[in-house]
Specification:
The chain is mainly alpha-helical. The protein is built from 4 helices and no strands. The protein is elongated and about 60 Å long.
Length: 105
């Protein structure tokens, strides 16, 4: 019984660490996205904008809430970036964010 309990505990710990790491990766991606989008959206209040973009990710599961928020801001700023271009940028920044989190940055 003890070996099974140990294995279950290790599995639960690994799951918790993975979930925490993915949360950090998403938050980092959102920060990087905000840094990229702020000048295109005409936002000079970078720290406040980073907070807005990160907070927008808590509206619903997935990335659609962040995409909608940033796309609306880019449209308001006249950036002329399509939703597909924005998705591509989000995917690129997700890779960068994952690399940074794994590297301990």
């Amino acid at each position: 019984m003890s070996a099974i309990d140990d294995r279950r505990s290790a599995s639960e710990t690994k799951f918790a660490l993975t979930a925490e790491q993915e949360f950090k990766v998403d938050a980092r991606r959102n920060k990087l996205l905000a840094v990229w989008a702020a000048p295109l959206a005409g936002r000079s209040d970078l720290e406040a904008y980073i907070g807005e973009v990160i907070a927008s990710d808590f509206e619903e599961a997935g990335d659609e809430d962040v995409l909608r928020k940033v796309k609306a801001d880019l449209d308001k700023g006249g950036a002329g970036i399509s939703a597909q271009e924005l998705r591509t940028k989000m995917d690129e920044l997700l890779v960068v964010a994952r690399e940074q989190i794994v590297a301990g940055e």
